[in-house]
Amino acid sequence: MKNTIIVFALLITFNLFAADKWAGKAAPGFDIPDQHGVFHTLKEYKGKWLVLYFYPKDDTPGCTTEALNFSKDYKTIQDMGAEIVGASLDDIESHKKFADKHNIPFTLLADKDEIMSTAYDVVKKVPLMHYAKRQTFIIDPNGIVAKFYEDVTASSHSKEVINDLTQLISKAKLSKADISTNGFEKDK
After folding, report:
1. Domains, the chain, with CATH or none
2. Torsion angles phi and psi, residue 162, rounded to 5
């Protein structure tokens, strides 16, 4: 019984740390083309919050659901001072068809060579096939990963991101206010 409790405690601890394996780390840079062949880098999002989500395959049921929900919430997320970028191992042409078919208003990065997906450790390799795991990173305006989602449910993920982004932005504003206020001003 005692060994079972120890194993259970270790599993819980491991899962807590696994979920936070990216939080507080610098996001890997990238230079990858979008659905129009235009290259994007992490640096162009400096000063903004970035929701970078990886997904397995264009125009498949779960990936379409996730993209449509992010599309529906795109204006809300932009109004928060954030940008959405999707990425998969599909090529430019596949992304263009997918974006055009579903009126996806945000950037879809074509990581055909797996460079970006490898840097973010999201590549899943199975016999005869590689794909990006459905995982999301919220990156703060300084390029630091503020939140990492290892397990994503496509149908509810956009709302989850909005809730977490709201909290992260509020926390960042509070921290900024604390830094700009010294002890003497608090006593006035």
Report:
1. 48-179 (3.40.30.10)
2. -60, -45
